[in-house]
Amino acid sequence: MTPLVILATALVRWDWIARNGDEIWLRTQQHLVLTALSVLLGLVVAFPLALAAIRYPRLYGPLLGVGGVLFTIPSVALFPLLGPFTGILTRTTALIVLTIYTVLILLRNTVEGLRSVPADIREAAEAMGYRRTAQLFKVELPLALPVIIAGLRIATVTTIGLVTITAVIGQGGYGQFFIDGFLRNFATVTIVGIVLSVALAVGADLLLLLVQRALTPWTRRTA
Amino acid sequence: MISFDAVTKRFPDGTVAVDELQLEIPDGEVVVLVGPSGCGKTTTMRMVNRMVEPTSGTVRLNGKDVMSQDPATLRRGIGYVIQQIGLFPHRTIADNIATVPRLLGWDKRRMQGRVEALMELVGLPPEAAQRYPHQLSGGQRQRVGVARALAVDPPVMLMDEPFGAVDPIVRARLQEEFLRLQREVRKTIVFVTHDIDEAILMGDRIAILAQGGRLQQYGPPRELLADPVNDFVASFLGAERGLKRLALIPVSEVTAEPGPVVSPDDTAEQATQVARSFGTDWAVVVDGAEGNGRLRGWVSLHELEATVGESVLRPFALQVRATDSLRVALNAMVTSRTGVAVRVDEEGRYQGILTQELISKEIR
């Protein structure tokens, strides 16, 4: 690890970084927006699917099956497949592909989270006189939150990695640095892309962890 | 009043959990449903608040068919306590207790006042209000469960093995507190347990159910213990049925015998005569009228000096009072060398003796 870091540091042209702050900021914004949108879209799609899977358990198997198949298709192959419908070089295409991946992760975690709510707590809620929807939002969802947010973290980190690929269809982001670095045989941009991508993933993961802690104070095991 | 009229519950897999149940639960009483596992006692209880719906027959609450009522509204008016308690781990103790008031839209101040009152009622320290359930002991959690069920002061409570998950010492204390509480609040309670001793202790009436939800016998504990209708009931009540009955009969229900009573001023000769006339070799020593009739102890004829007062006075280690049970009296008999239990009033005045003959006459 250390020799690699030294080598990389030696290869970096710091003056390029200093001169290209604007581009770095632009790529960061593009990367963030694509990640955030696809995770949010994934949540919007996965949540109702998860509720359906809870209410009609027979749906869950097929849903996971379809999702699993989609998950195995390489993203690069999906771009030309979607091309005729949404255009190859569009943000819509990028978002659809990214969302497919997040949906599967979020669906699984939301279902598992809701299923992990102990039977006695459901029974008590029902017997206290909660109606179905209120019980879901006031009792079951809060208790499923740790598992759901764990899914959100995996989906976010995965997506931050995946977003680099969408640069090949002109959606920018840190992936553009890899393309530039390769085409211009210029190590500095590649390294900047890697470092920022990792930093973004770690940062986002940490942020979501903090969000989870803030939202679920009861999980802190202090007597 | 809760009434079951020809209620049957058949589950989709064909098992009959409750079979043509006919049962009336009067207001203000604790009715215990008891029986082996699979006897449908929990299913029966859960039909009261529609957690389970009957296949046929009618369950009525105050004359109204529960199936004609909105389930959520119905349930908000019925307290519910289960063995696993089912506290909401994501809510503080105060919020847990305020669950139903919140569902009913009470204002904040009213909720807070109610929570404080309930915590005091069930014996929870005020500082527990802002804790989460996992920060409490099992016994404390159980109290929260009871407080939550009592939150809107519902006239009816359903309790399914409410003390099943705590250790025996805590259970005994919770049972005692529950009985004290019930004397204050006078709820109509359906109480489910598999423990016949708990049933005898808690129940104003007991319904004994057999496999498949068939009601065997329904009545006050004393009646069941005195007169079990069949072998199932008799064996379910257990081998110590006689002793269990004694535990339910207060000393005040039997007439104490006067017994061989002497005063400290009596001579040895007088004392011997009194004892002999009762066929004993001992006599109870009681202060005379000027001593207010206080019990002093007993003397053995073999240890008499010139007067009773000069002799060795032996104390009765155990004395029974009107509110003690005959079981307590029996215990006093078998642990005393005199073989009798001595009854005194609140001021320690002698009221007579209880003998084993008296007790066996009572339960025969």
SSE arrangement:
The complex is a heterodimer of chains A (223) and B (364).
Chain A: H1 2-11, H2 14-19, H3 21-55, H4 57-72, H5 75-86, H6 91-115, H7 119-128, H8 132-163, H9 175-183, H10 187-215
Helix pairs in contact in A: 3-4, 3-6, 3-8, 4-6, 5-6, 6-8, 7-8, 8-10, 9-10
Chain B: E1 2-10, E2 16-25, E3 30-34, H1 41-46, E4 56-61, E5 64-65, H2 71-76, E6 78-82, H3 93-97, H4 99-103, H5 108-121, H6 138-149, E7 156-160, H7 168-185, E8 188-193, H8 196-202, E9 205-210, E10 214-219, H9 221-226, H10 231-237, H11 241-248, E11 261-262, H12 268-278, E12 282-286, E13 295-300, E14 319-320, H13 326-335, E15 341-344, E16 350-354, H14 356-363
Parallel strand pairs in B: 3-8, 3-9, 6-7, 7-8, 11-12, 14-15
Antiparallel strand pairs in B: 1-2, 1-4, 4-5, 9-10, 12-13, 15-16
Helix pairs in contact in B: 5-6, 11-13
What would you say this structure looks like, in words?
- The complex is a heterodimer of chains A (223) and B (364).
- Chain A has 223 residues and is an all-alpha fold.
- Chain A has a single domain, classed as MetI-like fold, CATH 1.10.3720.10.
- Chain A is built from 10 helices and no strands.
- In chain A, helix 3 runs antiparallel to helix 8 and helix 7 (119-128) crosses helix 8.
- In chain A, 33% of the residues are buried.
- The mean pLDDT of chain A is 86.
- Chain B is of the alpha/beta class and 364 residues long.
- Chain B has 2 domains: 2-249, P-loop containing nucleotide triphosphate hydrolases (Rossmann fold, 3-Layer(aba) Sandwich); 252-363, Roll (CBS-domain).
- Chain B has helices at residues 41-46, 71-76, 93-97, 99-103, 108-121, 138-149, 168-185, 196-202, 221-226, 231-237, 241-248, 268-278, 326-335, 356-363, and strands spanning 2-10, 16-25, 30-34, 56-61, 64-65, 78-82, 156-160, 188-193, 205-210, 214-219, 261-262, 282-286, 295-300, 319-320, 341-344, 350-354.
- In chain B, the strands form 4 sheets. In chain B, strands 6-7-8-3-9-10 form a 6-stranded mixed beta sheet. Chain B has a 4-stranded antiparallel beta sheet with strand order 2-1-4-5. A 3-stranded mixed beta sheet of chain B has the order 11-12-13.
- In chain B, strand 1 and strand 2 form a beta hairpin.
- In chain B, helix 5 (108-121) packs across helix 6.
- Chain B is elongated, with a radius of gyration of 26 Å.
- Chain B starts with a strand and ends with a helix.
- The mean pLDDT of chain B is 91.
- The chains are: A mainly alpha (223), B alpha/beta (364).
- At the A-B interface, helix 7 and helix 8 of A face helix 2, strand 6 and helix 4 of B.
